[in-house]
Structures are given as structure tokens and as C-alpha cells.
Amino acid sequence: MPDSQRELPLVVAGGGAAGFMAAITAAEAGAPQVELWEATADPLAKVRISGGGRCNLTNACWDPAELVGNYPRGSRPLRGPFSRFATGDAVAWFAERGVELVEEGDGRMFPVSNSSATVVEALSRAAAAAGVLLRPQWALQAVTPRPGGGFLLQRRGGSSPLACRRLVLATGGHPSGRRLAEALGHSVVPPVPSLFTLRLQAPWLQELAGVSQAPVALELQVGEERFRQTGIVLITHWGISGPALLRLTAFAARALHGAGYRAELRLDWTGGLAPEALQEQLRQARRQLARRQLGNGRPLEQLKRRLWVALLAQAELNPSQPWAELTRQGEQRLLEVLQRSHYPVTGRGPFGEEFVTAGGVALGEVNLASMESRLWPGLYFAGELLDVDGVTGGFNFQHCWTSGWLAGTAAAA
Ligand SMILES: Cc1cc2nc3c(=O)[nH]c(=O)nc-3n(C[C@H](O)[C@H](O)[C@H](O)COP(=O)(O)OP(=O)(O)OC[C@H]3O[C@@H](n4cnc5c(N)ncnc54)[C@H](O)[C@@H]3O)c2cc1C
Fold first, then answer.
1. Of the four listed, 2, 230, 276, 393, which is most buried by Cβ atoms within 10 Å?
2. How far apart are CA 263 and CA 266, in angstroms?
């Protein structure tokens, strides 16, 4: 039978994390002849480079109710999907396929081998063992629904379209998948970048590049909106980075994009201490460190010395002045600098280790129990193509495993 007349039972478009998970799950569940189309010659390319080559595969956040708090887009709707397949399921799934994970202090989980190659190999092995037919350099170019159900798929460079019964779109943040979804009548939330650092107009800070400080309370004012996070920040030669800042920009991604990346950042170097408690700390320091020079006696243990000395300069205080001689006005300036320094954000800085797109296929048009389109039966979505994105720490892959598993399970049924 010529290819154009044959109906393929299931095609998964996109050979990334979500597409592999969907294809393997469907094939293992008994779907016959699962084809996995990948536009490039290099499937799982992002898994390979992820986590600095170590692949931060998920996060040790076991409770679905807590897990959803890590998704600036998708949070509440993900409760259902995560109640079916969450972190524990992903950990078990990979362990069954030979990838043991180890948890780091901050909850991020990596393969014990510390190499993303282990994950790439395990997914490739599992796909082959389940009988998935991987087709590298097969790019899906157009999808036409057929009157009696199913779809006609046109691939780039292919002569005639191929018929398929069910289709999973898992094309990631690439524009081609969003175009395909839009052509099928799906609404697509316009993509904007997430998980980036910020450029600040604060030359004195840039001189401290490399200093990491915790906890720091951040408050970002974008127009009328305010975003807050507390945690570790890293001072860079362009401004500021670190986990707390990346989390902040993820939640503020859409607002920042709308404001042309102009905003104001307030840094509280005390991590959000009550002003009265900080004042008390300063008074105690004045009593207990009376003879010590300001530069040699920090009122808060956690303040890095280089930062403390720079903060003194910002408060126009001489670091060789003894604590006992700190005047009321000096104390007031110190309080301001420690807790209420505002800096103009002048733009977006480089991305952190992870980069994802916020936006994608609108969740309201997808049945999140099965990832099936509410417009076209037999069409499923998985991964970054959806309007879901997580903060840094393994949450983006977790969403790929969850949505891929749900789509694969439903498409095989
Ligand atoms: C540098 C970097 C590091 C990262 N590190 C981490 C990390 O450690 N932990 C984490 O959780 N997240 C990480 N992320 C985010 C994570 O990689 C993504 O969330 C995830 O890869 C999305 O998976 P996906 O399968 O949806 O899309 P993708 O991985 O983008 O896969 C989509 C695939 O579809 C193919 N494709 C596109 N269009 C078509 C088409 N028309 N036809 C056929 N194929 C097509 C693409 O070539 C691609 O291979 C990182 C991202 C980057 C950029």
C-alpha cells in the first residue's frame, strides 16, 4: 500500500523530553507502530545540554499541591495532571529504566552519573525497546484534520501527506509547533522569555561581581504590579542573578516584557528582617562591638564582608570609625541602605543555566486529564508547547514527564 493511503496509528511530533516520554508511554501501553518525528538530526538535544550537561531532571518536591507553586504559568490547572504523575512517579519511572537520581541540598535532582548522557541513553534505549520508530530529520510542516477523524500530516520535503489516527504535538518552544496549533484553531498565548537575570543601574554593585548573598528579600515593581522573592542572589558585572532573582523574573516575565524590561528593584540585604529588629541589631552592635571598627564588625553574621564594606560606603560611613561613634543619622542611613535601596532595572541580562518560553497553547482548550485537544479528538499536546513554564530547579522537565506520560497514556487507549 502506498504511504499516502496507509494510516499510521500514532505520530508524536518533537523528539525532546516530552515527545520521548509520550512515545515510550504509548508504545509500552500497547499502541502499535508509534512514530516519533524529530525535525533535526539530534533528538533530545536540550536534555543533553540541560543543567550544564548534568540534566536537572526533576525536583524533590513530592506534594503536588506544593509542586504547582513552582509554575508561574500553569500553576492551578496542573494540580490534576500532577495528581496522576508527579515527582515520585518520574523518579520511579527513570529508576525502572536504569537512571538512579540523587538529590542536592536545594532539592534539585540529577542522575547519579552526574551526566545528561545517562538520561539521553535511557530514553533512547526505552524508545527502541518499546518499538518506537524514531524518524530524525522529519519535520512536521502542516496538519489537516480528516472528515472521518484522524489527520493528514505533511512533512517538510515529503512528497505526499501521510494519514495518521492520533497525533501528539510536542515541539517545545519552537515556533513551528505553535503555528501548527494555531492553524488548527487553537489559541496560543504569545511567547515571552522567562528565567533571565536583570541589568541594574548600580555601578557600586557591579564592583562586587561574584559575591553571593543569602537571604536577600527582593521586591520588583513593574508598573502597578509588585513581585517578591527571598533567597540567594548573586551579584554580577551586569547586575544581579541567582536562584531568587531567576524565580522573581519567572513570575514577573509577562509584566516585565510588557514594560520593555523597565522596572525598579528593591533589595533588602537583611532578608526581610522587621525594621525594629534590625534597629535593635544595630544598637546591640553599637554596645557589643563598641571599640571595633565598623568595617570589622558586621551587625548580621550572614552579610559577606565585601558587601558590608560597600554598604558602609553607600551609607557614607567610614569603615575605620568605631561602632561606638555611630550617630543616629549614620544609623538611619545604614538602615536605609540595608533595607530600602532601590535600583532602576535597565534591561534583561543574560539567561541563567535554564531558558524557557512562557506562553504557548492555551490550557483552557486542552483536557488536562488526557492532554487531548478540546477542539480535535485524537490531537494531544505535551511539554513546553503548552502555556506552562516552571521556575529553575527541574520543574520544567517535570512538566514534560507529566504531560508526556498523560498524552502517551491517553493516545494509546
Ligand atoms: C540550556 C538549557 C538548560 C536547561 N536545563 C534544564 C534543567 O536542567 N532542568 C529543567 O527542568 N529544564 C531545563 N531546561 C528547560 C527544558 O530543557 C525544557 O523545558 C524542555 O526541554 C522542554 O521539552 P520539550 O520536549 O517540550 O521541548 P524540546 O526539548 O524543545 O523538544 C522539542 C523537539 O521538537 C523538535 N521540533 C520542533 N518543531 C518540530 C516539528 N515541526 N516537527 C518535528 N519536530 C519538531 C525540536 O527540534 C525539538 O527536538 C533547560 C533549557 C535550556 C535551554
1. 393
2. 10
